[in-house]
Every structure is written in structure tokens, then in C-alpha cells.
């Protein structure tokens, strides 16, 4: 089985990604501005427009892909990997996981 061309990052590790990592939110505008909100600094690039939008992006720049649940962003990461991008991260669980209230363990 081929390894994923991207790395899943749980919300708890977002702070480990440096400022050089570009945050790309692949949801639609109404989701981006909706109740779940979006990550600080995230750019809205809906999945349907991603291939065209990313054509001029530097292939070596690290990208974090974000969506509601992690499914669309995983597809986006695969699309970008086919396009030659080498440093891709997928926000595991998406914005749902980011907004999930932290429950104490035990």
C-alpha cells in the first residue's frame, strides 16, 4: 500500500507548524464564514477551484489543508501531491475537531 502523499495533523499539533506553512481552507464560503469559523490566517480556496488556484503556487511551500471533517482536505492534499507539491499536511478531523470541546480524561 502506498503511503499518503501528505501527513495528518491533529488540531493539538497545529502550533507545531511554523509560520511558513500556508493554511488553505477548501470549504465553500458559507462554511468558512459559518458557525465553525476558520483558522487564523487561513485562505479560502474552495476545493472546486483548487487546481486552477494552485497552478502558480511554489511547489516546495508547505501547505496545511483544512475542511469541515478532514475528508475534502485529504482529497485536496492528494490533488496537490499529484500536482508536484511535496510538503502537505491535512487537518485530521477538520474544523469539527478544532471546535470540539476538550473533555477531561479520566
UniProtKB/TrEMBL annotation:
InterPro entries assigned to the protein according to its UniProt record, in alphabetical order: GlpE_sulfurtransferase, Rhodanese-like_dom, Rhodanese-like_dom_sf
Coiled-coil ranges per UniProt: none
Domain Rhodanese: 17-104
SUPFAM superfamilies: Rhodanese/Cell cycle control phosphatase (SSF52821)
Domain of life: Bacteria
Listed PROSITE patterns: RHODANESE_3
Official protein name in the record: Rhodanese-like domain-containing protein
Species of provenance: Corallococcus carmarthensis
Amino acid at each position: 500500500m502506498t503511503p499518503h502523499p501528505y501527513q495528518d495533523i491533529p488540531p493539538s499539533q497545529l502550533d507545531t507548524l511554523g509560520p511558513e506553512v500556508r493554511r488553505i481552507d477548501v470549504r465553500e464560503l458559507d462554511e468558512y464564514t459559518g458557525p465553525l469559523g476558520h483558522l487564523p490566517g487561513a485562505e479560502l480556496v474552495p476545493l472546486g477551484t483548487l487546481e486552477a488556484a494552485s497552478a502558480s503556487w511554489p511547489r516546495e511551500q508547505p501547505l496545511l489543508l483544512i475542511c469541515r471533517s478532514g475528508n475534502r482536505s485529504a482529497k485536496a492534499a492528494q490533488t496537490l501531491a499529484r500536482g508536484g507539491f511535496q510538503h502537505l499536511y491535512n487537518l485530521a478531523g477538520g474544523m469539527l475537531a478544532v471546535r470540539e470541546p476538550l473533555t477531561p480524561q479520566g
